[in-house]
Amino acid sequence: MSTKLKQFLYFGSVCLGAALLSGCSRSGAEITMVTPRLEIDREIAEKFAQLFDDPEFIEIDLIPSPDSNLPGIEALKSGAADIALVSNAELFDADIATIVPLYPTVLHIIHRTKLVVPDVLDLIRNHTVFAGPPGTTSRAMLEAAAARVGLAPYDIDYVEHNRCADVIIVFAPVLPGIPDRIKECGDYRLFSLGEPDQIGKGSLVDSVTLLNPNLKPFVIPLDTYGELTPEPVVTLAVDKLLVARI
Question: Disulfide engineering: 169 pairs with which of 37, 49, 89, 131, CB 3.0-4.6 Å?
Fold first, then answer.
């Protein structure tokens, strides 16, 4: 995990502690946190929970969601847990409050190098796709885009995370270890949604962020991921939030 991300998590932990202590009348508070379904989010949640390892102060226990097909925010609404990591692309809910934004998650569209395609929708046609579990931000965004050209969810050949997909579409923090996760599956590249100098000039990314204000343009710089990024990659980002049930 990068130093910057550690700083974000530490800042979030301080804010969480302040928020909980202000409304907590007993010592040794035990807080339950929904275990994220996406592997990279689970790893971050585990590191976050490790920041609170003092039973005399505040202890965070990771618990599974009661329904593996539903996002973490639904587990909060059901009363199964106290806090969760969720994307800022989730719909507003009056029963859920944001404790603090933790870090930006970036849309990674990764495809096999041999696939020569003009756009994202051509990528998913006739190719296997991993876009996270049902209800995740990446999967919901993909299916919304596909619906605009007449593709239903059952038209997309989804695979589970333990298989090497032709196309991987996930929101994740920019971490140096991402290439290691797919190196055994062959050669891949990141797909760019445009050129950096097109941002702010009516590009596709401008259109998407206009219609979805919680999203923002993001450029993954040249060589960030070695051979995955031989050129700068234009994509989208959305904040990951630490939220609690009111």
Answer: 131
Task: Provide the token pair at 48.
Answer: 């976050």
Q: Classify burial at 226, counting beta carbons within 10 Å of its beta carbon; exposed 0-12, middle 13-18, buried 19 or more.
A: exposed
Q: Is a pLDDT exceeding 80 seen at residue 18? A: no
The encoded tokens of residue 187 equal 């050669």
Contact, 145 vs 121, CB < 8 A?
yes
Using one digit for the tens of pLDDT, what is the confidence trace for 70-112?
777 888 888 888 888 989 988 778 888 887 888 899 999 999 9
Q: Using a CB cutoff of 8 Å and minimum separation of 24, what contacts does 68-71 make? A: 68/37, 68/133, 69/133, 69/134, 69/135, 70/135, 71/37, 71/135, 71/136
Judge whether 31 and 83 are in contact, CB under 8 Å.
Answer: yes
- In the chain, what's the furthest Cα-to-Cα distance? 60
> What does the DSSP assignment read for the chain?
--HHHHHHHHHHHHHHHHHHHHT--SSSEEEEEEPPSSHHHHHHHHHHHHT-B-TTSEEEEEE--S-TTS-HHHHHHHTS-SEEEEETTSPP-TTEEEEEEEEEEEEEEEEETT---SSHHHHHTTSEEE--STT-HHHHHHHHHHHTTT--GGGSEE--TTS--SEEEEEE---TTHHHHHGGG--EEEPPSS-GGGTTTT-HHHHHHHH-TT-EEEEEPTTTTGGG-SS-EEEEEEEEEEEEE-
